[in-house]
Amino acid sequence: MSRWEPNASGRLQRAALELYSERGYDQTTVTEIAKRAGLTERTFFRYFADKREVLFYGSGILQERLVQGIDDAPDTLSPLDAIGAALIAAAEPIEEIREFSRRRQAVIAANPELQERELIKLAALSTALRDALRKRGLADLAASLAAEAGLAVFKIAFQRWVDESGDSGGRTLAQLIRESLAELKTVAAGSGPA
Amino acid sequence: MSRWEPNASGRLQRAALELYSERGYDQTTVTEIAKRAGLTERTFFRYFADKREVLFYGSGILQERLVQGIDDAPDTLSPLDAIGAALIAAAEPIEEIREFSRRRQAVIAANPELQERELIKLAALSTALRDALRKRGLADLAASLAAEAGLAVFKIAFQRWVDESGDSGGRTLAQLIRESLAELKTVAAGSGPA
User: What does pTM read for this prediction?
Assistant: First the structure.
């Protein structure tokens, strides 16, 4: 029963999300998630601390990818464009899981405790982005602002990507990130009327 | 015992913050807060739902002031400058309560539950700013980005204001908001290296 299972974490995440969507988050137990995935509870707890963390497993991976993306960005890029490049690189694997992401957002939107957890994760992500920008030699204030602005671009692009139905053109997350980043620059540069 | 008490909510807020700082948030009861303020528990519950809400009473007032400030901003201002004007107007009464704000931040920083609450309040504030900008005729995407950017300016300026000790020059919150807003514009305009 403790043998290695191929893609166990992915199977558990999909099973959990199915059950949260069908029955509600509060009504679902770890036992049921493991059963739906065809795995044991012991395997579940090898990957996740509890049923809440199943929904936030991807947040840690996203943070690692974004920090790596900023580290990898050419020195010639401005701070905001370095974040933009990191966001677009991190978007690629996410494009594959649009339906998963949509259902995840719906589960979180229905539960205040999960919303709080999401906000905590986003705040941690902002701090990680700021620290990655500092490593590029950026001063504190500029790094904090660029991190917050970059995170806003991602949050807003991600929400639009999740909300967009196929018949509205089905733009990619990368396209929506580019559009949001360009719009942020316009907003920040604007000196005329709204 | 139920007579009107002058500035009861202010006295309760100060008493609560003193006790949270002295004994810790978890160790303080509503009974103790009311006693310290020289008021009854009944008066406490006339203003606050629970001991947590005492710390967030100001958030609602800030939100009202910011929305009003955006409504009042001249049409000739860009969205971000309209938020900037609203932030600077809202900063004025806050300048008076720096020590209170500093202790409040310390209590919140020491307690994950309070940090979550703070993030929820900030998310609500972002939504309120976005809606106020939409009322000025701004499109959804630009309004969302300007609201998030404006909120980042405030958060970062506020944190610096709270952190700064008197001997670092003791800049006002309004000055720090102006500086953060200018830096955000520089960051967003930058196309060169970090």
Answer: 0.90
Q: Does A138 touch chain B (CB under 8 A)?
A: yes
ipTM of the complex: 0.88
The structural domains of chain B, ordered by start, are 8-49 (1.10.10.60), 54-180 (1.10.357.10)
Distance CA B101, CA B23 (A): 18
Query: Inter-chain contact B138–A80, Cβ cutoff 8 Å?
Result: no
Q: What is the pLDDT of residue A84?
A: 96
Least CB–CB distance from A145: residue in B136, B138, B184: B184
Neighbour-count burial of B132, counting CB atoms closer than 10 A to its CB (0-12 exposed, 13-18 middle, 19+ buried) = buried
**Which residues have C-beta within 8 Å of that of residue A1, sequence separation ≥ 6?**
A40, A42
CB-CB contact of A1 with A42 (8 Å)? yes
- Whole-number Cα distances in Å, A4 to A1, A36, A42, A46, A111: 9, 17, 12, 11, 33
